[in-house]
Amino acid sequence: MAKQELTKQISPADAVSKKVSEAATFAETVIKDTTANPAPLGLMGFGLTTILLNLHNIGLFGLGSMILSMGIFYGGIAQIIAGIMEWKKKNTFGTVAFTSYGFFWITLVGLIVFPKFGFAEAPDATAMAAFLFFWGFFTLILFLGTFKMNYAMIAIFGSLTVLFFLLAVGDMTGNPTIKTIAGYEGIVCGALAVYTGAAQILNEIYGREVLPLGAFE
User: Fold this and answer.
1) Is 158 buried (19+), middle (13-18) or exposed (0-12) by CB count in 10 A?
2) What's this model's pTM, rounded to 2 decimal places?
3) What is the model's pLDDT at position 29?
4) Are 174 and 125 in contact (CB under 8 A)?
5) Which of 22-26, 57-61, 150-154, 165-169 has the least mean pLDDT?
6) Helix %, strand %, coil % for the chain, to 5?
7) Residue 217: its pLDDT value, please?
C-alpha cells in the first residue's frame, strides 16, 4: 500500500522534469572547454597599441592614421573580441578588462576624430584629465584583483594605473615633462603586456615555461 501511494505522488510531468534536470547536470559535468586562450590576443592588442601611442607621447612621431587605426582595430576591436571569448570561458576579470580597454581605445580615437569632423567640441584639459583619472581609478580596481594571479599581471596593471594618473596630471597641469615621463612609463607598461602575451603563447606551444610569468607558489 505504501509503495502504491508513493507512486501516485510522482506525476509523469515531475518524472520528466527530474530526468531533464539529471541530464542537464550530467551534460554540465562532461562538457570540456576546448577553445583557445584569448588572453594573448587581448594582451598583444593592448600592449602594441600602448607602445605606439606612447612613442608618439615622447615625440618620436606624430599622431597619424597609424595610431588611430591601431586604436580602432587592434587595440579596440581585437580586445573586445578577446573579452567576449573570455566571457565564454566564464572569466569575469578577462571579460571586463579586455572589453573595457577595447572600448577605451575606440573612445580615445573618437575624442580625437569627432572634433575634426565637427561632431563635437574637442575636450579641454580639465575634461581630458577627468577622463584619464577615472580610467586610472577603474584600473586601480582591476589592479587589486591581480594579486590573486601572477607577478606579470601585477606589473601590467600596476604600471597602467600609474600611467593613467600621470597622464591625468600632465593634462591638468600642462607640464610637458610629466607627459614625457608618462610616455616612457607607458612604453614599459605596453612592453610588459606584450611579454605576458608572448609568454602565454610560447609556454602553451612548448608545453613548458619558456618565459616565466611569476606564478605564486
Assistant:
1) middle
2) 0.84
3) 53
4) yes
5) 22-26
6) 80, 0, 20
7) 74
Is it the case that residue 89 has pLDDT exceeding 80? yes
**Nearest-angstrom CA–CA distance, 180 and 193:** 20
CA distances from 185 to 1, 54, 161, 166, 214 (A): 81, 8, 11, 9, 21
Residue in the block written with cell 599622431: 63
Three-state secondary structure string covering 52-70: HHHHHHCCCCCCCHHHHHH
Cα-based distances in Å from 51 to 57, 98, 105, 162, 200: 10, 17, 13, 15, 19
Average pLDDT, the chain: 91
Measure the CA–CA gap between 93 and 95, rounded to whole angstroms: 5
**How many Cα atoms occupy the beta-carbon half-sphere of 189 within 13 Å?**
25
Distance between first and last Cα of the chain: 62
Residue 59 predicted with pLDDT over 50: yes
Backbone angles phi, psi at 10, to 5 degrees: -95, 105
